[in-house]
Design goal:
Blueprint: E1 2-6, H1 14-29, E2 33-36, H2 42-53, E3 57-63, E4 76-80, H3 83-92, E5 96-99, H4 104-118, E6 126-129, H5 136-147, H6 155-158, E7 160-162, H7 165-177
Parallel strand pairs: 1-2, 1-5, 2-3, 3-4, 5-6, 6-7
Length: 178
């Protein structure tokens, strides 16, 4: 399975890198392909290293203005002209999406992917990996949106909230089998 992962390129502490590393190792050992933003820094590097060390493939989709930060030696590296094209390519090259911790760029990617799914533009499973409770507030906000009628589809049809990498991959693998 080609699994797109949206995540930070920042250097983060162990409460975020440990779950990311564990997820990456499971992804690679499972024979899956990481489809990611192509960066060789921060949490993106941690995940790419873990997948590669565990035998998985790396498919990067970077943007022209970040070409200097692209990971050398990825199995495939594509450069988009801008962030909008990058998001479209990441989604097109993947069978599933996992959203890890990140900043405004990750939040932008997550909300666009969920909005496209809400409108039926894709049916790929989306998992929000809630490492160290990072997305507890967002989870609460999504539930409020659902309860107050802002979501035209059930929240469970849009996104699955996983507390760790094992739960995230188990959900994706069960989704593929169904």
């Amino acid at each position: 399975m080609n699994i797109c992962v949206f995540l930070s390129a920042a250097d983060l502490d162990e409460r975020y890198t440990a779950p990311a590393r564990e997820f990456a190792t499971r992804l690679g050992k499972g024979g899956h392909t990481l489809v990611w933003g192509g960066s060789d820094s921060g949490l993106m590097k941690v995940v790419a290293d873990g997948v590669e060390e565990a035998g998985g493939r790396l498919v990067g989709v970077s943007v022209d203005f970040l070409a200097a930060k692209a990971r050398p030696g990825a199995d495939e590296m594509v450069f988009a002209k801008d962030l909008a094209e990058r998001k479209a390519l990441l989604l097109a090259k993947s069978d599933a999406v996992v959203i890890m911790v990140g900043g405004t760029g990750t939040l932008d990617e997550a909300t666009e992917i969920l909005e496209l799914k809400k409108h039926g533009k894709h049916t790929k499973p989306v998992v929000l990996l809630n490492a160290a409770g990072f997305y507890d507030g967002l989870k609460t906000q999504f539930r409020r949106m659902e309860e107050e009628g802002f979501l035209p589809v059930p929240l469970s049809d849009l996104v699955f909230f996983a507390e760790d990498g094992t739960e995230a991959l188990a959900y994706l693998e069960s989704w593929v089998r169904s």
